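Q: A small favour: would you put together sequence and structure tokens for a protein?
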Amino acid sequence: MKIVLIGGRNIPGFGGVESYMMNLAQELSNQGHKATIICCNDRSYETTIDNVCIIHKACPKQSIFTFPLLFIKSIGYILKNRKSIDVVNFQGTFLTFFSGWIARLCGCKVCYTRHSMAEDNPKYNKIKKFTIKTLSFISIWLCGKNIITISNSKAAEIKDRYGKSCTVIPCGVNMPPEKINSNIIEKFGISKGNYFLTIGRFDPIKNLDILINAFKKTNNERYQLVIAGNYNNSYGEQLLQLAKENKNIIFVGGVIGDDKECLLRNCFVNCLVSSSEGMPISLLEAMAYGKHSIVTDIPAIREIAKDDWCYWCKPKDVDSLYLQLINTEKNHETVASGNSEIVEYIKRQHTWRSITQQYVSYLHSIGAKQKRTE
């Protein structure tokens, strides 16, 4: 099948949606399908990575209408290639219905993947949240029935909030490579095995300010806090200011490939302290290394993590997070040794190979078949 995935920004990129799209497309290619990605960027151009064609469309940053604009801009590609495209998968439901209707008229099967609830993000004021929620309600009902989401907890949330049923196809990860070629540890003066790590986008919903304040409160010179992600936004500037007096808080920027693998392999504890998640790929990636994690007690994380694998804290609570940082330090030897049970769980449930097989089965269930073109 020829499958077009539309969404994300600057792929391959640093965010969860971007990682999801790229890894899914690569594995689709590995399994004999043809995958194309259409994503946002600062400028328009095309490239190919690992047999995946990536089409970048110029779209503005940080607007609630950025991705609806991308979906509109994708129509030209769909019309041009309508005879060969089997499936169009929009990564979102927000104002995607018009582009979806066009794709259906072109004879393509259409589905939508809902990753998160944008209206819950604290960066939006009350008016924007109301606008997003209202438009989301209209959009999700106009999209039709072929809606995917990435966790049971998110499916329940969508059903409760919008009255819409979804098919759950979770996120996956690649198992760690045997060899890693990276000098990121030496470049930033990071102490192997003695740093807390968090990887993700710089967004208020990730509560990185809470993590920084809790880490500063420990006042333990043995450990470092390594924060990976693109900090070139207003929230990132706030965090840099918040951490500037502490030499043990290290910002390494966005990481992919071997640099990310190196940080995951050598960290002491992984941290994910968000207020809301769909299914956090960064947590799954750390789990693939058998790492223990400090996490917020929210449904999406409860769905994939057991008590024995994690240290739980309350969302947006500095004191609760501080206590768990201290608890991991007190149990350094046990925590540092990792847990093979976590690795086995990932191998059974969350490799991209098995997730992609689920995805392809779903596409067949909605009637997607290989088109025959002359």
